[in-house]
Amino acid sequence: MFAPNTLTGLSIIELSAFVAAPLGGLTLAQLGADVIRIDPPRGGLDYHRWPLASDGSSLFWQGLNKAKRSAAIDTATPEGRELVQALIVAPEDNGNILLTNFPARGFLLYETLAAQCPRLIQLTITGDRLGRSAVDYTVNPRLGFPGLTGPQNDEQPCNHVLPAWDLITGHLAVIGILAAERSRRASGQGQSVALALEDAALAMSSHLGLLAEAQLGMQRQKYGNYLYGAFGRDFLTADQERIMVVGLTLKQWRALGQATGLQSELDALATELGLNFSQEGDRFRGREAIAERIAEWCARHSLTYIGPLFEQHGVCWSRYQSLQQGLQDSSPDGFMANPLLSMVIQPGAGPQLAAGMPLQFSAAGQQAARAAPVLGSSTAEILSTMLGLTDAQIGALAQRGIIMCAA
Amino acid sequence: MFAPNTLTGLSIIELSAFVAAPLGGLTLAQLGADVIRIDPPRGGLDYHRWPLASDGSSLFWQGLNKAKRSAAIDTATPEGRELVQALIVAPEDNGNILLTNFPARGFLLYETLAAQCPRLIQLTITGDRLGRSAVDYTVNPRLGFPGLTGPQNDEQPCNHVLPAWDLITGHLAVIGILAAERSRRASGQGQSVALALEDAALAMSSHLGLLAEAQLGMQRQKYGNYLYGAFGRDFLTADQERIMVVGLTLKQWRALGQATGLQSELDALATELGLNFSQEGDRFRGREAIAERIAEWCARHSLTYIGPLFEQHGVCWSRYQSLQQGLQDSSPDGFMANPLLSMVIQPGAGPQLAAGMPLQFSAAGQQAARAAPVLGSSTAEILSTMLGLTDAQIGALAQRGIIMCAA
């Protein structure tokens, strides 16, 4: 039973590099949109970004460009820039959407493009609101996150490795495009939409209450591996496995007490400390004393005992493992049992495990992941269908190095 | 000049707690949708989540529920559940959208609701795909992130503090709703959309190349504060300030060499090591030797010298600071200069700094942040306008404790 994917018919031009903008395009592509990523003939700034496969190709690039089409056009040449402009404004009912993290000036100046195509939606991602470059590694220090991360006794700030703002910004870009496209179907008019990585980070800091906390003069501290504001920490089991245990809600807290049989001991502890552990704040205040009891219990039991017990009681917990271990786990809890993942044949790099779209639409069904394109593999097809160029014209452009057409 | 906000007219019912689902609702609300969050009369599971304001109210809850309306209805009672169901299916052209992280069973069973309202779009967020609870603090250990975070010489895994998967899942929920609503306008049919926090995390791990890297047998290591795969690290200045310096792209790398005057020394270093620092991978391979040179240079100069110099050369860098310091910075670089932020009067808690929507739509203009509602402040209004209940009926429900109407 074939069901079309959710955004089938929508068409996007992406001029991008690195994470946020490519992830936006990837998300739209995995929802069924036709996303054309345009790169220089020898690849963009992110074409060799680590990690690399054994053939030297970038697993990073392949991961972020799944399910797209690739056109290789040299925008350092006037003809290349004209071709890209023509693709952006080419009449198409569900097209004329540009997603980019390149500066919105020169050949990408919104006003110029919109003069030719008032329906144009142009979403531009920048580092900060002034257009300067910024990456997660520079945004985080400005917002204070490294000072809240890492071992409690360590004075040094600790950078976390997940490019969270990039990922959030990429998803915000999709929201911006879908919202602007919804408006366009009512008004017929496009618009430009601006989005800065640092603004996304600042907004999330406000939404999580961190900004108001700072403004009101409260100084957040570093709590190591403890979860802030309730109970949660890592523990070692008798067989030297490490687990994370969380008692955020009262239900989770009670489940932990019941599973470990420590409920009454923990209640007595609370009384002793003048606290009430049914309140999350008091669980945080008493975290070290609580952790001492849980640590003793964990040290007496192996993971093989703890795991099923915690599952049975509905404890909120997990095991510390490497991604490899998660892939090697053949139980129903292992990642390989998740239909989100499938093997794709990545041209050049061979079979590769890849994730599809985590949103599961009942009307579209689960869509399997698709590989990333070979750089320039759709250049000719795109110039032919969208701009009506002949094979001879395409051949001449390729010969002059303005475009690159991969087989 | 008044311009309607981008999603003005769209109407959403939110039954939620904590981060992901409330953030989804917040995002839609800040884009102009009418988002009604329904809570129990004494508040939901997240109503007391830390950080707290001095009056004991939750800055976390206020942060995540800005710009919404609040209805307080007790779904532990049959009448309360019927009221909520009636609100979800109440005929409205741009409504019948339910966003929730509550289990899609019982009174929230999609099939039951859709039988009354085939236009219903129901987006349900779960912890994992099997419906078990999970939070960032349990998902991260399963995916290996704590093992890649923290000081290089530290064997212990290090939890990072940002609930990134929650934030990403919240944005994905908005994408799911906008995509399903786009489909609905073509087909007239709603659908259910499922989204698991762990699936979002697994998908991002694939998109960043981490999943394929692990599957292909490559073991990612812990690199402390170094940026992976290119050059980047933290450094101390002569005046004991700490800065992050990044040379991800060649342009950024050259800017760093020029600003510090170390270009030729670094080129000589590369030759000595048999590396080519114009390639990002070689900058990573030579990172310790590079960092030694940069560290020496930084230790000789103060931040007041380095800052303007780096700006002038376009170096990608930032200063480590607390969020407080960022708010106290009265320069154009300080957060208070950013129009994204404004003061809102948060009932009970007083004036509070809050962020609006980081997406800047040219057709809608910058929308100032709006405060979170008082719990239950729109209960009566919503039951009256959406279900046609009389004041007497509303009064009787309130008296029986099935609803709560705040002044």
UniProtKB/TrEMBL annotation, chains A, B:
In terms of Pfam families, this protein maps to:
CoA_transf_3 (PF02515)
Kindly list the organism's lineage: Bacteria, Pseudomonadati, Pseudomonadota, Betaproteobacteria, Burkholderiales
Protein name, as recorded: 2-methylfumaryl-CoA isomerase
Species of origin:
Bordetella genomosp. 12
Keyword annotations from UniProtKB, A to Z = Isomerase
Where exactly are the transmembrane stretches of this chain? none
Molecular function via GO: isomerase activity
Q: Which PANTHER family does the entry link to?
A: ALPHA-METHYLACYL-COA RACEMASE, SUCCINYL-COA--D-CITRAMALATE COA-TRANSFERASE
